[in-house]
Design a protein that fits this description.
Strand content: 5-15%
Keywords: Cytoplasm, Leucine-rich repeat, Lipoprotein, Membrane, Myristate, Palmitate, Repeat
Number of strands: 7
CATH architecture of one domain: Alpha-Beta Horseshoe
Main location: cytoplasm
Subcellular location: Cytoplasm; Endomembrane system
CATH topology of one domain: Leucine-rich repeat, LRR (right-handed beta-alpha superhelix)
Distance between the termini: 49 Å
CATH superfamily of one domain: Ribonuclease Inhibitor
Number of helices: 8
Radius of gyration: 26 Å
GO cellular component, one term: Ragulator complex
Structural class: mainly alpha
Pfam families: LAMTOR (PF15454), LRR_9 (PF14580)
Largest sheet: 7 strands, mixed
Amino acid sequence: MFGVPVDFSFKDLCSVEGVLSEEPNKGVHTPWRNSGGKFASHVLRLNNNLLLNMTGLMETLSALFIEPKRLAWLDLSFNNITHIHLVLTELVELRVLYLHGNSVCNFSEVDKLRALPLLHTITLHGNNIETRHGYRNYVIATLPHLKMMDFSAVTKQERDGDERKPLIPHPNPDSKPPNGTERNPANISSTRTDEQALLSIINKTAQNIIDVSAADSQGMEQHEYMDKARQYSTKLAVLSSTLSQKKPPPLPSLTSQPHQVLASDLVPCSDIQQVSKVAAYAYSAISQIKVDAKEELVVQFAIP
């Protein structure tokens, strides 16, 4: 469906246009070219380079491919990209986008990909955005056609996230008190601090409460209603076991001076990110390993 990949990975490219002065890596199969030297493929690999942005992508695709706007698979993993360029929205047939191992930080970058109606697979792990609260849920909610995220299938429970909607609405700190009374300006600061702390605790609690009113029992068959009830019971059991088993990690048994361990500096965030990048790279490399059997693995023996 996608054709043989045109592979420019591991070329130390600093710009997308740099591929025009390079020859693609040779694989098991060679992508077909027409008389003008353009590829009849819908897959481009630019992973493991030094790219900072996607400037010049469309011009490069036009020079490389017979049908540049029909690109379906783009691998930009393991570069230094910080922003998702709007040029990607021109690739209306893009289905698979690999961006893991980059430096994307903000959820607003993911919003730009809403314009891609066929995008069903994306990777963003190994970016700073992965550490943000609600990362996976936000991406899935923003891209409604996703089937796979970070090499993990999007489940029906994740897609139907509205069944766990908060029971308490978002507070409005600027709303007026009831009965038209005015607040005392001298107490506003301390009152808001106390209210915000209390509302923060209540909201966190509400997020873990399942709104059973979201299941319309009147419009459901009995077996559907029982299935929903079993799902809710399972979720509550998992949550209860997780909370009960949560214990602080013990110190290593060979630690003779625990006060030195407790007083030592935390592991730098950059080190954690580097380990995450290496782990993601290893996973990506292993997932691409293919074994082509050249000989029969089962040998027939004749019985005398």
